[in-house]
Write a structure and sequence with these properties.
Layout (H helix, E strand, L loop, with lengths): L40 H14 L3 H11 L5 H13 L2 H21 L1
Length: 110
């Protein structure tokens, strides 16, 4: 008693826009990318004015102190501290660069 197995191959055209295995899953649409707008000159002026009047925030002062400290890797320490406060490394890098610029500007004035 031999059993014969018959296999048929039927090709089903793949559906466009489905993720994962062909013809399964759910339809995925790409999200539109957000376009960055240029900052309005008035807004940047007000920001700079507020920075002048109010000064640095306490955590920014600490970053400033870390950057002023002598020794190796003070930039890394400052970024690490800023990351802890701000949550994202990219934000931390931006903040440390900003404060570094403020420190350099204050050195130029004196």
């Amino acid at each position: 008693p031999s059993v014969k197995t018959i296999t048929t191959t039927k090709t089903i055209p793949s559906k466009a826009g489905y993720f994962g295995v062909e013809n399964s899953g759910y339809k995925v649409e790409k999200l539109p990318k957000k376009v960055k707008k240029e900052e309005h000159p008035k807004k940047s002026f007000i920001k700079s004015l507020m920075r002048e009047v109010a000064g640095l925030k306490p955590y920014e002062l600490k970053i400033n102190d870390i950057l002023k400290a002598s020794g190796l890797k003070q930039d890394k320490k400052a970024r690490k501290f800023a990351k802890k406060k701000l949550g994202k490394y990219s934000r931390a890098r931006k903040k440390v660069n900003e404060i570094n610029g403020l420190v350099l500007d204050s050195k130029k004035d004196n």
